């Protein structure tokens, strides 16, 4: 039921349409360190996180660049790979053991055709994701490292204890040493 309330933040989906959506979900488990998507692979399933934390990232020259984190009750996807059924440029890696529910791309398309409410829900979720990406870009350019750290702590405090700090530092565009200083000195 918690996922139902999560969806309703984006669109006031009826309980009947919610049931239509969730009755088609299948389950899958992933182990810590396991990749859900790798570069060159087309993401064919849209994942709904039940438990665990996942990270979207790419690696170059022995450095990991973190794009995003996902955790319950959010979706877990490489948006452009899933939406356009094109090869991914990024990884999604499980940072903890993870339980997911998923729909195939084809099945989701049928549901979107079947229900205007489900289609509207996903459109609004994508709009929110786009707004979050724009805000992250603004924050990376306009905020000090302390402001970025505090904003992250307010939005996702639970991740401070579940995600290696080097990955949070990468996501926030902060040197890991400076992140460690912030973590030890700035109280929230």
Automatic annotation (TrEMBL):
Residues in Cyclic nucleotide-binding domain copies: 9-120
InterPro entries, per the entry: cNMP-bd_dom, cNMP-bd_dom_sf, RmlC-like_jellyroll
Pfam family, one: cNMP_binding
Cross-referenced PROSITE patterns: CNMP_BINDING_3
The name this protein goes by in its record: Crp/Fnr family transcriptional regulator
